[in-house]
Amino acid sequence: MDYGINSNRRQAVEKLMGIGAGIAAGLLPPPQGSSPGLEAMPGPHGTGLAENPPAAFAGIFDVKSFGATGDGKTLDTPAINRAIEAAAAAGGGTVRFPAGAYLCFSIHLKSKVDLYLDQGATIVGAATGEGGAYDPAEPNPWDTYQDFGHSHWHNALLWGEDLSDVSILGPGLIWGKGLTRGPGDRNAGVGDKAISLKNCRNISIRDVSFLHGGHFAILATGVDNFTVDNLKIDTNRDGIDFDCCRNVRVSNCSVNSPWDDGLCPKSSYALGYARATENLTITNCYVTGSYQEGTLLDGTWKPFESGVRVPRTGRIKCGTESNGGFKNLTISNCIFEGCRGLALETVDGALLEDIAVSNLAMRDIVEMPFFLRLGSRMRGPQGTPVGKLRRVNISDVVVSNTDARYASIISGIPGHEIEDVRLSNITILHQGGGTKADAAVQPPEKENAYPEPNMFGITPAYGFFVRHVKGLEMSHIDVRHSSEDWRPAFVLQDVKGADFIHIKAERTQGTSAFLMENAAELGIYLSRPVPETHLESVERKEL
What does each of the 543 residues of the chain score in pLDDT, given as a tens digit? Predict the structure, then answer.
């Protein structure tokens, strides 16, 4: 009687575990002719094993059956990798982690093998030198075009390359306790990411929690058909980076990442060619940079103590790596709290186009709600032309308590305009406090600089600073300030083809709502307190 276990599977499991251990663990049926006493053992309903084979026969591989202790002290990496190899050799299956703490270095994912972390199960990233080391970072001839962390995948707690049909599931925890957030990541044996995936397809990560993920809790590069759902990430740098990925669905995730970005589509040159991140949806997610690491997961939500300097980044951002581009992205039903706002950036020669953003709630925003930047940093192969940023719709957004220093920024560079941007149904409550000196500021161009919302310094507007843009429509926009502000609500420089419809702009007495410089084909309609206006061309005008 073979219980559906073919000879290849039997040989693989016998080799990895030994035949006796395999039978005892329930991963193999007893061979024909073996002791009738074993075959007649009662099953869950009083019947024999022959009639009710244990769950392991259906492809469940318990890591403890392969020698893992789960005591948090013993290095369990070899046993876990044996379980994964056994599942792969059997043609696929689920590797189960019962409750316990599994101290590990690099775990090697395999095609058609799922990992399931039970409630109470924790994979703990060991510290370098704690009885072993992480796999070395593999060579990459294109690593000069992006940061070290983006250029290598093997130096991770869990990694997979050229895989298909893999899932990481369950209510357990991945704790990158011994991972670095960047310093020393080039040293042998150091790991800098919790999960890394390269050139994979049909991948799912669901329900798992992450604590202290290192440089990345998840780095996915060249991953297609990728589903990410119901993750809780409480980490010391990036939450999830989707780099050169296609057909990605991200939903119901909560990310606390005070020191770096929360959810971050990228399109680097790490694969050796320019590949777009496209057909990506982010929905029903919460991003923040407000809380001490670990307090999202334990539910205490502790803010940082007064005087602790934390960037509170925490946002959703496309970029900075932008060689391959971003196409067909939707971002909807998301909450930003105590972090930077939404950033759409292309500075390395890529297209960023066909982006739809809707239904965002933002509160206590560091710097600004929206940052759209087309630049020419050009970190990539020589000869690449400047990219394009075009066809972006942002609608139905409410923002409160945004930074006193900055307006939202939509900025191209001379000769390279951002094109066809639509913003509608947006309410922004700004802290205010801008001075007359702030209103006179002329922000530098910084065409080749690293793109950050604060790169231009204090802005001369409190609502929107728009420069080098062609084709802009803003409708049903309401901008207000909590305290007196001497800057205009809108400053437009080198803008062509702009319509403002039903705009409400609070202003301090003696200030203007709009300041326009080198503008053409501009109209303002049904707006308070500005009269109906149409301008074919103007060098400078205040309204």
Answer: 333 334 444 454 444 444 334 433 444 444 443 333 323 333 333 333 333 333 344 799 999 999 999 999 999 999 999 999 999 999 999 999 999 999 999 999 999 999 999 999 999 999 998 889 999 999 999 999 999 999 999 999 999 999 999 999 999 999 999 999 999 999 999 999 999 999 999 999 999 999 999 999 999 999 999 999 999 999 999 999 999 999 999 999 999 999 999 999 999 999 999 999 999 999 999 999 999 999 999 999 999 998 899 999 999 999 999 999 999 999 999 999 999 999 999 999 999 999 999 999 999 999 999 999 999 999 999 999 999 999 999 999 999 999 999 999 999 999 999 999 999 999 999 999 999 999 999 999 999 999 999 999 999 999 999 999 999 999 999 999 999 999 999 999 999 999 999 999 999 999 999 999 999 999 999 998 899 999 999 999 999
Does the N-terminal peptide bond of residue 320 adopt cis geometry, omega within 30 degrees of 0?
A: yes
Distance CA 400, CA 120 (A): 38
Cα(453)–Cα(459) distance, rounded to whole angstroms? 10
CA distance 155 to 249: 26
Q: In the block, which residue shows the tokens 């202790």? A: 69
Can you tell me the distance from the alpha carbon of 270 to that of 151, in angstroms, rounded to the nearest whole number? 5
Neighbours of 462 (CB within 10 A): 35
Reduce the DSSP state of residue 439 to 3 states and report it: helix
**Both tokens of residue 151?**
């250029």
Backbone angles phi, psi at 55, to 5 degrees: -60, -30
Cis peptide before 529 (omega within 30 of 0): yes
CA distances from 378 to 109, 274, 365 (A): 34, 13, 29
Residue-wise DSSP of 337-401? ESS--EEEEE-SS-EEEEEEEEEEEEEEESS-SEEEEE-----SSTTPPP-EEEEEEEEEEEEEE
Residue type, 111: S
CA distances from 162 to 93, 196, 213, 241, 283 (A): 18, 12, 23, 18, 28
Q: Tell me how far apart the alpha carbons of residues 524 and 337 are, in angstroms, rounded to a whole number.
A: 32
Residues forming a β-bridge with 198: 161, 221
CA 310 vs CA 305, 306, 334, 386: distances in Å = 10, 10, 23, 33
Confirm if 463 and 503 have CB atoms less than 8 A apart. no
Q: 205 and 195 in contact (C-beta within 8 Å)?
A: yes
- Compute φ and ψ for 278, nearest 5 degrees: -145, 160
0.85 cut: is pTM over it?
Answer: yes
**CB distance 269 to 243 below 8 Å:** no
CA 3 to chain centre: 44
H or E element in which residue 8 lies: helix 7-17
